[in-house]
Amino acid sequence: MNYPKVIIKKKKAEAIGRRHPWIFSGAIARIEGKPKEGDIVQVLDYQGNYLATGHFQKSSIAIRLFSFTPSSIDYNFWVNKLQAAYLYRQKIGIVGQSDTNVYRLVHAEGDGLPSLIIDVYGKTAVIQTYSWAMHLLKPTLVKALQAVLGENLVAVYDKSTDSLSSLKKMLLDTVKNGYLYGTLSEQIVTEHGHRFWVDWEKGQKTGFFIDQRENRRLLAHFVKGKQVLNAFCYSGGFSIYALKADAKLVHSVDSSQKAIQWTEKNVALNGFDSENKHKSFTQDVGKFLQQNTQHYDVMVLDPPAFAKHRNARHSAIHGYKHLNTKAFSQIKSGGVLFTFSCSQVISRATFYHTITAAAIEAKRNIRVLHHLSQPPDHPVNIFHPEGEYLKGLVLYVE
Fold first, then answer.
1. Could you give the domains of the chain?
2. Element housing 67 (H / E)
3. Which of 133, 163, 162 is nearest to 59 (CA)?
4. Is the separation of the CB atoms in 66 and 114 below 8 Å?
5. Over the Cα atoms of the chain, what is R_g?
6. What element of type H or E holds 142?
7. Is the dihedral of CA 139, 141, 145, 146 positive or negative?
8. DSSP 3-state assignment of 310?
9. Which one of 25, 38, 59, 369 is most buried, counting C-beta atoms within 10 A?
10. Is the pLDDT of residue 212 over 60?
């Protein structure tokens, strides 16, 4: 197919040679043709040599690249892309486990599919698109998913309304969440043998924070016989792992009443009750830490992103410092703190220094037990370090 051609300035082609998947508008010398929002374009250097193929958009990131090899971008191309992502998950052992049936199948640039997220919950795939191009591709992606997953797929749910920008929604007033294939199926999934009820229709992201799977499992090593706080608990992931690892007491805190209801539903689903070893609190975490007199052996701080854009970075750093200073004042001597940031614009080094500043202010001696990140089904493309967003520390507090 004869795609519109985007010619890159002489000094800007090097980044594409390093396979970075973004081309900024300032790198474009000229455009041959009239690509519309979401159209496929070929990228050429100033001498007319092929560099890459991607989706065009009218923004600062003008092209998101999905191929560095000349190809026919047809149905088979997308099937091969999804097949490669599925094969990778098979090779790392996340597909086909007897005790885990929830995982991320596509992680945007990490899988060479910019602006596309696909999470698998049992036999339901939940799609989130973050660009108009991927939004337009959804019918093709559904057919490709059927080809790749076969009988392991009974439904595909589209959760893109929240992820598409307001500008893109205005282009088509029928952009709504809903089933692209099949209907509502079993909402109970298993993760390392723990059972979770997931609401992909009303929940955050695609319904569950799959990226904390291995960090939840690590928590279980520290909680036996301990008093545990799970702050920003959402649907209680860390709480369930703590209860099943024989924690003495688990407190779950979230400002969302809906999140607390989901937490208590998952507590009951795993055979516990909220009258004995577990108690939920619908409250702002900052106020809870300020007012609560309980001191904990183990604490988990997993807040939502404090900064989604660089202009919010300074206030986010202040927020992380304040939150962790409060936690250091509440945790017992010899306690363990799991603390996280999912703000992509907060680097791992910045987060580390922020937690250090909180420890200094709280006047506590700290040992670093673990540096944490996202699991391998949320891969970081080595050519796209921006794909690393989740960072965490496990700290021993004297």
1. 5-67 (2.30.130.10), 75-188 (3.30.750.80), 209-397 (3.40.50.150)
2. strand 61-67
3. 133
4. yes
5. 23
6. helix 138-149
7. positive
8. helix
9. 38
10. yes
3-class secondary structure, 309:
coil
Judge contact between 124 and 157, C-beta under 8 A. Answer: yes
Contact 117, 106 (CB under 8 A): yes
d(CA 304, CA 307): 9
Place of tokens 């603390």: 339
193 by Cβ neighbours in 10 Å (0-12 / 13-18 / 19+) ranks as: exposed
pTM score, two decimals? 0.94
pLDDT, tens only, 335-384: 999 999 998 888 999 999 999 999 999 999 999 999 999 999 999 999 99
Report the distance separating Cα 175 and Cα 18, nearest Å: 35
The three-point CA angle 30-15-19 to 5° equals: 110
**Strand pairing report for 391-397 and 366-373:** antiparallel
Other CB atoms within 10 Å distance of the CB of residue 276:
9
103 forms bridges with which residues in the sheet? 120
22-24 and 61-67 as β-strands: parallel, antiparallel, unpaired?
antiparallel
Say how many Å lie between the first and final Cα of the chain, rounded: 65
CA–CA distance, 207 with 121 (Å, rounded to integer) = 9
Cβ partners under 8 Å of residue 337, min gap 6? 298, 299, 300, 301, 324, 327, 328, 331, 393, 394, 395, 397
